[in-house]
Design a protein that fits this description.
Layout: H1 2-12, H2 39-50, E1 53-58, E2 61-66, H3 69-78, E3 83-84, H4 89-96, H5 110-116, H6 118-121, H7 124-150, E4 155-156, H8 157-174, H9 180-197, H10 214-234, H11 243-250, H12 256-287, H13 289-303, H14 311-315, H15 318-330, E5 336-341, E6 347-349, E7 352-354, E8 359-363, H16 365-368, H17 389-392, H18 413-430, E9 432-434, E10 442-446, E11 449-453, E12 456-460
Helix pairs in contact: 4-9, 7-8, 7-18, 8-12, 9-10, 10-12, 12-15, 12-18, 13-15
Bound molecules: protoporphyrin IX containing FE.
Length: 462
C-alpha cells in the first residue's frame, strides 16, 4: 500500500469517503478480476462488503463499481449524456465497424445511428407479428435436426443453440438462412472481438487483429451483406417480412454499406445473449421439473396448436413470461458493462464530483438478487412475478435491467423478448428435452455476454 499510495495517492483525493478494498502495488485491485472468479461476482462481492459504490484501482487508474440503483439510474438515464462508452470501442471497431451503435457515442454518431436504425424506424409490433410463422418454421426445423442427431449423440447447447439463433436471425433480418460457412465467418469475427475485449494489455489494442482468417472472414462477411442489400434495393418487396425489405420500403434511406452493417450488427447483438438466455432457461427448468411441467401445460393451453399460434397468444402466455424473467433475473445474459465519465469535464454522480474520464463498472447481478427487494432471492421461482410484481419491475427498472437501462438500453430488446419466447415455446412444444441438471453450469464471458458452456442435452420427439 505504501508505494501505491506514494505513486497514486493524489488521484485518491477526488474519491474521498468512497470505501473500497486496499490496493497494492503495482496492480491495485485488478488481481480480484484475475483469480478465476467471474467479474460480475467480484462486483457483487464488493457490494456486499462496501455497499452501493466501491472505489477500486485498476493498476494506477481509479474506477467505481456501481451497485446502487439510484447511481446507476443517473449514469444510464437522468445524466446519461455525461457518460460515454470507452471499452469496448477500440476492441470491437475492427470487427463490427466503427459506426455500429454498440460502440458509437452521443455526439459522435450514436443519435443519428439510433434514430435511423430499423428497430427505431419500423413499427416493431407490426414487424414482429409477421415474424412468428417464418421463425417458428426455422426453429422447428433445427429442433427436428436436434432430435435426429440425439439418436446417436448429444446436443451441445452452447454451440447448437447459437447456430439455431443464427438461423432464426438470418430469417428475421435477411429473409434467408445462411449456411455453415457464413456461421463460421461470424464465429471467427466474434472470437477476434472477444479476445480483444478481454485483452489485459490496452496498448495491444492499437495493433490490428492478428488472428489467422480474420481479414478473409471479415471481407467475405461484409461483402456478402452489401451485395444482398444492393440486390434487394433494385426490387424491394414490401410484402416480405424480413427487416431488410421492410427497411428498404419503410425505413430511413440508409446507404447500402450502412444498412448492411446495421443489420449485420444484429447477429453480434443478439445471437450470444439470446442463446445464453434460452440455455439458462432450459437449465433452470431441468433443475426445477415442476416448473417445466407447469410451463409446458401453460404453453399447450395458451398457445394451442404448436404450428399456428399467433403473436398475441405467444406474448400473453404469463407463465412463459415469468420463466424467462426469472431466468434473466437469476442469470442475466449481460451482467456487466462499462461507462466512463466525460473526458472533457468533471461530472456529478450522487454526492461525488468525478474527475474526467473516471471508469465505471455497472452490474445488474447484485441488484437482481438483492434480498431486500426480492424475497428468497436465491430461489428460482417464476411465481414471484405474479400479483403485480412483473408490472412493478418492468425491464429497465432499478432491480431488473437485463437489457440495460435508459436511452442506450438494448435496441433489440423487444425483438429479444419476442425471440426468446418464441424459441423456448417452440423447443418445448416440439420435443422432450433431457438435460441432466447435475451438469455444471459453467459460465464464461464471451463477447460481453455470460455464456453457459458445456451443457449437453438429448432431444426426443413428443
Ligand atoms: C437476450 C437478449 C439480449 C440481451 C440480454 C441484451 C442486452 C443488452 C444490454 C444490457 C445492452 C446495454 C449495454 C450497455 O448499456 O452498455 C444492450 C445493448 C444493445 N443491444 Fe442487446 N441484448 C439482447 C439482444 C439483442 C438483440 C436481439 C439485438 C439486435 C438484434 C441487440 C442489439 C443491441 C445493440 C445494438 C445495443 C447497443 C445499443 C446502444 O448502445 O444504443 N441486442 N443489449
Amino acid at each position: 500500500m505504501g508505494l501505491f499510495k506514494l505513486l497514486h495517492g493524489h488521484k485518491a483525493r477526488a474519491f474521498e469517503g468512497i470505501p473500497g478494498p486496499e490496493p497494492s502495488f503495482p496492480m491495485g485491485n485488478a488481481g480480484a478480476f484475475l483469480d478465476g472468479r467471474l467479474p460480475w461476482e467480484v462486483c457483487c462481492d464488493f457490494a456486499h462488503e462496501f455497499g452501493g459504490v466501491t472505489l477500486i484501482w485498476m493498476a494506477g487508474q481509479p474506477a467505481l463499481v456501481l451497485n446502487d440503483p439510484a447511481l446507476i439510474g443517473e449514469v444510464l438515464e437522468s445524466s446519461w449524456t455525461n457518460f460515454y462508452k470507452d471499452a469496448p470501442c477500440k476492441a470491437l471497431a475492427p470487427v463490427i465497424t466503427r459506426g455500429s451503435l454498440f460502440i458509437s457515442n452521443y455526439g459522435k454518431g450514436w443519435s443519428k445511428g439510433h434514430a435511423e436504425n430499423p428497430f427505431t424506424t419500423l413499427d416493431q409490433d407490426q414487424w414482429l407479428a409477421q415474424q412468428v410463422a417464418p421463425l417458428r418454421k426455422v426453429i422447428k426445423n433445427d429442433v427436428e435436426k436436434f432430435i435426429e442427431r440425439s439418436a446417436s449423440s448429444t446436443i451441445d447447447l452452447y454451440r447448437d443453440m447459437q447456430k439455431l439463433s443464427f438461423h432464426a436471425f438470418s430469417q428475421a433480418f435477411w429473409g434467408r438462412i445462411f449456411g455453415d460457412e457464413v456461421f463460421e465467418w461470424f464465429q471467427t469475427l466474434a472470437r477476434t472481438g472477444d479476445r480483444r475485449m478481454q485483452c489485459r494489455i490496452p496498448p495491444l489494442l492499437n495493433l490490428p487483429p492478428l488472428r489467422p482468417g480474420f481479414y478473409s472472414a471479415r471481407s467475405k462477411w461484409y461483402i456478402m451483406f452489401e451485395r444482398i442489400v444492393k440486390e434487394a434495393r433494385r426490387n424491394p418487396d414490401a410484402s416480405a417480412p424480413d427487416m431488410l425489405n421492410q427497411a428498404l420500403c419503410h425505413g430511413a434511406n440508409l446507404p447500402d454499406a450502412v444498412l448492411a452493417e446495421t443489420l449485420a450488427t444484429n447477429f453480434f447483438g443478439g445471437v450470444f445473449s439470446g442463446s445464453s438466455t434460452i440455455n439458462t432457461s432450459l437449465y433452470m427448468l431441468a433443475k426445477h421439473p415442476d416448473e417445466c411441467k407447469k410451463l409446458v401445460t401453460a404453453l399447450k393451453k395458451d398457445l394451442g396448436d404448436a404450428d399456428s399460434f399467433d403473436i398475441d397468444a405467444l406474448l400473453s402466455c404469463r407463465q412463459l413470461d415469468f420463466v424467462l424473467r426469472e431466468a434473466m433475473r437469476y442469470y442475466p445474459a449481460v451482467p456487466l458493462y462499462l461507462r466512463n465519465s466525460a473526458k472533457d469535464r468533471e461530472v456529478q454522480l450522487g454526492a461525488h464530483t468525478l474527475p474526467r474520464n473516471t471508469m465505471l463498472f455497472i452490474s445488474n447481478y447484485y441488484l437482481h438478487r438483492y434480498s431486500h427487494h426480492w424475497p428468497q432471492a436465491e430461489k428460482f421461482d417464476p411465481s414471484r412475478w405474479e400479483k403485480g410484481v412483473a408490472e412493478e419491475n418492468p425491464l429497465g427498472s432499478g432491480y431488473f435491467f437485463p437489457y440495460g437501462r435508459g436511452p442506450r438500453a438494448c435496441i433489440g430488446q423487444q425483438y429479444g423478448v419476442f425471440y426468446t419466447k418464441l424459441a423456448l415455446a417452440t423447443l418445448l412444444l416440439n420435443s422432450k428435452i433431457d438435460l441432466n441438471p447435475a451438469q455444471k453450469f459453467n459460465q464464461f464471458f464471451f463477447f460481453g455476454v455470460m455464456m453457459p458452456n458445456g451443457l449437453k442435452a438429448k432431444f426426443t420427439a413428443l
